[in-house]
Structure formats: C-alpha cells, structure tokens
Design brief:
metal-binding; ATP-binding; four-stranded antiparallel β-sheet; alpha+beta; nucleotide-binding; nucleotide metabolism; binds adenosine-3',5'-cyclic-monophosphate
Length: about 140
C-alpha cells in the first residue's frame, strides 16, 4: 500500500471536471484518503514547487497554480505513485496517451490539469505540505 499526492489544478477545477478525474482514480483501484479544495497564494505555490525554483517556468507555473481554487488529495493503493502517473499521462498533453486525464483535459505543458508525486520522497514532502496525519483516513 502506497500514498501519493494528487492535485486537480486551477484549469481542471474551472472546467468542472473534478468528478470525472476522481472517478478515473477510483475505477483504477485508487482510494481517496484525504481531500480538500483550497486556493493557494503565490507564496504557497512557490513553496510547493520549490524543487523547480531554478526552472525558467517557475514564475509562470506559480502564477497559474495561484490563479484559482485547486483540489488536493491523498490517493492510496498498490503502486499508487506509478498508477497515478499512468492515469494522468505525460506532463505535456501533446505526448499523453489516449484515455489519460491530460490527453482529455489539458491545454498545454503548464496548464496540464493534474499533478502527481513522482517518487516516495516527493510524496512524503507533498502530502505533509497540505495534510496533517489526523486528516488522512
Ligand atoms: P507537474 O506535474 O505539476 O510538475 C511541475 C509542473 O511544471 C508541471 O506539472 C507543469 O505544470 C509545469 N511544467 C513542466 N514543464 C514545463 C515547461 N516546459 N513549461 C511550462 N511549464 C512546465
């Protein structure tokens, strides 16, 4: 059993596809262990994406992530990190496989609808960025 952090980004919330996205996780054997809708400040978005602080897209990415509400979730299941990434599809929707969330909903490499942790270490940091132990059931 593994846990991963999932975010439905501002573009996904605005398009009103939250239910569609959660349904895909559930159909693929992942369980929502914690969930909330929040609106990040620019500073909070910068803290979350701190590993990308040297990237050229850091400023634009953190503007985007703070432009509207997001839904953050802890997903739980067997191989949850890899399974979530498979369901999301490639970071750039142009490279995403048919049937993935990003292929169906994402606009471009930045406005790509969902985020998922890429390793157990980042899952640990990212889950604790948003949730306390008492909120994960
Ligand atoms: P995510 O999986 O949340 O991880 C980092 C995010 O940075 C990524 O999704 C995209 O939203 C964004 N990103 C990654 N690569 C680029 C890029 N080349 N240009 C703009 N944004 C990017």
């Amino acid at each position: 059993m593994e846990r991963t952090l999932s975010i439905i980004k501002p573009d996904g919330v605005k398009k009103n596809v939250v239910g569609d996205i959660i349904g895909r996780f559930e159909k693929n054997g992942l369980r929502v262990a914690a969930m909330k809708k929040i609106w990040l400040s620019k500073e909070e978005a910068k803290g979350f994406y701190i590993v990308h602080k040297e990237r050229p897209f850091y400023d634009s990415l953190t503007d985007f992530m703070s432009e509207g509400p997001i839904v953050v979730m802890v997903l739980e299941g067997e191989n949850a990190i890899a399974k979530n990434r498979e369901i999301m599809g490639a970071t750039n929707p142009a490279n995403a496989l048919p049937g993935t969330i990003r292929k169906d909903h994402a606009e471009n490499v930045e406005r790509n609808t969902v985020h998922g942790s890429d390793s157990p270490e980042s899952a640990c940091f990212e889950i604790s960025y948003f949730f306390s132990m008492l909120e994960i059931l």
